[in-house]
Write a structure and sequence with these properties.
There is one protein chain. This protein is of the alpha+beta class. Among the domains are: 2-193, Ribonuclease H-like superfamily/Ribonuclease H (Nucleotidyltransferase, domain 5), CATH 3.30.420.10; 291-347 and 479-599, Alpha-Beta Plaits (2-Layer Sandwich). Helix content is 47%, strand content 12%. It contains 21 helices and 15 strands. The strands form 5 sheets. Strands 3-2-1-4-5 form a 5-stranded mixed β-sheet, sandwiched between helices. Helix 7 (199-220) crosses helix 21 and helix 14 crosses helix 15.
Length: 599
């Protein structure tokens, strides 16, 4: 089956390395196996002078959880491979829909799935502890570590044989696998860079956190009355939800769901949930202590690519600044002479829905620059000359509907979100379905296909298919094409930019956070916007460009998240901060130079 892959050489490789919390990896050894010639390469520390294989387009590299291997390439000063496939991503894709949304298969569990014999978990644990001990290692221990690494290579090779039919089904499946592999190189670069953290403020927060969290509870719980000391009282929460009239998902036991994802989803629709959500996230696992900040003051942790069913990243909620509570994002602060730019796609989901459904009326609304007011006008809710200033209330109702539709919001949810009568909410929903009939035909077909167990697929081949017995949320199927194709768009943009040398710190859902010298930030922004627009056209087709918007924060100011800003201010007030800013509103760039981007 290897012959189905059109390459002169196919290398399966694996590194062993030491990586302390928040620090760059230190390679210990590498084992590689070239499948066509049968050649093996085993390198120990001190033997890494140059790559022992060509890295051009004629050679394919295959690994499991590839970003870790490419991080070792960066550490060694080696160029990235031109062609690679990550079997971690391809296995998740092959099983997407048969497992829950946060599924992170290991090499051993993947091998076990295919009935491949491997070392036991106990032996793997012993060897990992030996490696992470950092040495020095005796000659016998070096031999054992190389054998352990070679065993992982052998297991990866067998997994490749098992997955190859899925990877080489057609040109789209192989091309998609290569694109996903290309993205793992971008992930390695982004994880290497990390995020600039204000270590001084973080240290003070850690020192005063016990007192801060008690005061936070006292301040915020005044409007909720849900805590008994530091204990969250479920009965009080249920009473508050009922009184507030917020529709809330329930567990099979009948109790209200209290996981982060549910709180996050509800907070998007019901703003009164947000302070409680931020408080719970902040208290849950003492997330400040878990942040992976290196000695250079940069936060580094895995982006966990392909972690959701839409293939979006799922960074750690304890180790990553962007996985934790939103107020903690104000810990981000560029160093002297540096600036951060937050470049996001404007109304990305609406643009994707319009383009892929072929709904010209919806695309016209998107191109207007204000899709919410455009819907109000198209649906006859306001006169043709209405503006945000003249019809603010009507626009807000239209916005609640347009944003909620993508997540399957019903009339009850819309009524509560927009503060309107349920009959008016039903009328708004009917108007939306009538105005954007082509979109609704397309979305309903996708939803029905998913419910029937048929496969959903993105432009570049990421798939989802319900397995036997899989519990399917019909509302999530409405939004899956937008989220999954948005993820494709993000991966392309990250690949384009990191290959150009732009310092991308990380993707944040539908945005990219980039960094550079203050004097160069306008050029960096221009390159970023060009790449993001190019990526949108590649996913959606010629003529469909998703617009971008930019916010910039330059030293000595700090990043400020709109949704977490109030909580940050509360925390800083409690901490009694002296001489440290509480955040700054991000500002638009001063220039929009255009630079070419080559795909």
């Amino acid at each position: 089956m290897i012959g189905a892959l059109p390459y002169r050489a196919i290398w399966v490789l694996d590194f062993e390395f030491v990586a302390q919390n928040g620090e760059h990896p230190i390679p210990v050894c590498m084992v590689g196996h070239e499948l066509i010639s049968g050649r093996w390469v085993r390198l120990w520390q001190g033997d890494f002078s140059e790559p022992p294989f060509p890295l051009d387009e004629s050679t394919l590299f295959v690994t499991f959880s590839a970003a870790a291997e490419w991080s070792c390439f960066i550490a060694l000063g080696w160029p990235m491979p031109a062609r690679c496939i990550d079997l971690y991503a391809e296995f998740i894709r092959s099983q997407n829909g048969a497992h829950d949304d946060h599924w992170y298969p290991s090499l051993l569990s993947t091998a076990a799935f295919f009935g491949i014999d491997t070392m036991g978990t106990d032996h793997k644990g012993v060897m990992r502890d030996l490696i992470l001990g950092g040495g020095p290692w005796s000659p016998a221990e070096q031999v054992d570590i190389l054998k352990y690494c070679a065993a992982d290579v052998a297991a990866t090779t067998k997994i490749l044989h098992a997955l190859e039919p899925c990877i080489t089904t057609n040109d789209l499946s192989l091309g998609g696998a290569l694109l996903r592999g290309r993205y793992t190189c971008a992930v390695a670069r982004m994880e290497w860079h990390g995020l600039p953290v204000d270590v001084e403020v973080l240290t003070r927060l850690l020192g005063g956190w016990d007192a801060i969290k008690l005061q936070l509870i006292a301040d915020i719980d005044q409007q909720y009355g849900m805590f008994d000391g530091t204990r969250f009282v479920t009965q009080r929460f249920e009473a508050w939800v009922a009184k507030a009239g917020i529709p809330w998902p329930r567990l099979p036991s009948g109790r209200l769901a209290q996981d982060d994802e549910t709180f996050s989803e509800r907070a998007k629709t019901y703003p009164q949930v947000m302070p409680l959500h931020e408080l719970r996230r902040s208290l849950g696992k003492m997330r400040l202590r878990g942040l992976a900040v290196g000695t250079d003051g940069r936060c580094r942790s895995s982006l966990m690519p392909f972690g959701s069913k839409t293939s979006r990243n799922q960074p750690s909620t304890s180790r990553s600044v962007f996985g934790a509570a939103r107020w903690m994002r104000s810990l981000l602060k560029p160093g002297p002479g540096r600036a951060l730019a937050y470049v996001d796609w404007v109304s990305q989901e609406i643009a994707i829905a319009a383009a892929l459904s072929g709904d010209k009326v919806l695309w016209q609304a998107y191109e207007s620059g204000d899709p919410y007011m455009a819907f109000a006008i198209q649906a006859g809710l306001v006169p043709a000359n209405a503006t945000k200033a003249t019809h603010k209330a009507e626009r807000q109702r239209a916005k609640s509907l347009v944003l909620g539709v993508g997540y399957g919001m019903g009339a009850e949810g819309l009524a509560a979100s927009a503060g309107i009568h349920i009959d008016e909410a039903r009328d708004l929903l009917m108007r939306h379905k009538y105005t954007y009939r082509r979109f609704w035909e397309w979305a309903t077909l996708n939803q029905n296909a998913g419910l029937l167990g048929l496969q959903l697929q993105t432009t570049f081949g990421w798939t989802w298919q319900a397995g036997t017995g899989t519990k399917v949320n019909p509302r999530s199927l409405l939004n899956w094409p937008m989220q999954a194709n948005g993820a494709e768009m993000m991966r392309l943009a990250c690949s384009l930019l990191t290959e150009q040398g732009v310092m991308v710190c990380c993707p944040v859902h539908d945005a990219l956070l980039v960094e550079g010298p203050i004097d160069d930030i306008d050029f960096i922004i221009a390159a970023t916007r060009a790449a993001m627009e190019r990526a949108s056209t590649l996913v959606l087709g010629a003529g469909y460009v998703v617009k971008t918007d930019v916010e910039v924060v330059a030293h000595p100011n700090r990043y400020r998240d709109e949704a977490g800003g109030d909580m940050w201010d509360r925390v800083m007030t409690i901490l009694g901060h002296q001489g440290v800013d509480t955040g700054t509103v991000l500002v638009a760039p001063t220039d929009t130079k255009t630079v070419p981007v080559v795909c």
